[in-house]
Amino acid sequence: MARYESLKDDLVVCDGERPGGFPCRGQLYRCTKCGHTGCQQNKEHLCTKQGFNLNFKCYACSAVGMVELIASGHRQSKSAASSPARLAS
């Protein structure tokens, strides 16, 4: 369990609410096209702060697969596959 906690320490987790009033605590993602943030779920309406569906389609701008995982103190590198610098080249 300690190993799991050390892995989760660097991640930013969703503070949304799942059906039944349970906390989500899913990983948060950011859309690299529009900046929208939210968790990813396998069905719609499974979290009050859900931002992406199973295929990582952004609910704000409908971009598919243009996401980055949000981590504590994370800064996207210029070489990341979906960074603006990489997309421009």
Describe this structure in words.
- With 89 residues, the protein is of the alpha+beta class.
- Helix content is 15%, strand content 20%.
- It contains 2 helices and 6 strands; from the N terminus they run H-E-E-E-E-E-E-H.
- A hairpin with a 3-residue loop joins strand 1 and strand 2.
- The mean pLDDT is 81.
Distance between the termini: 43 Å
* Strand-pairing-aware structural class: alpha+beta
SSE order, one letter for each helix or strand = HEEEEEEH
Strand content: 15-25%
State mean pLDDT (0 to 100 scale).
Answer: 81
Which radius of gyration do the C-alpha atoms yield?
14 Å
Main β-sheet, spatial strand arrangement: 5-4-3-6
The major β-sheet equals: 4 strands, mixed
Strand count? 6
Q: List unreliable stretches of 5+ residues.
A: none
Oligomer: single chain
Share of helical residues: 10-25%
Tally of structural domains = 1
Number of helices: 2
Sum up the overall morphology in one term: globular
Question: How do the helices and strands line up, and which of them pair or pack?
Answer:
Blueprint: H1 2-9, E1 17-18, E2 22-23, E3 28-31, E4 37-40, E5 50-52, E6 67-69, H2 84-88
Parallel strand pairs: 4-5
Antiparallel strand pairs: 1-2, 3-4, 3-6
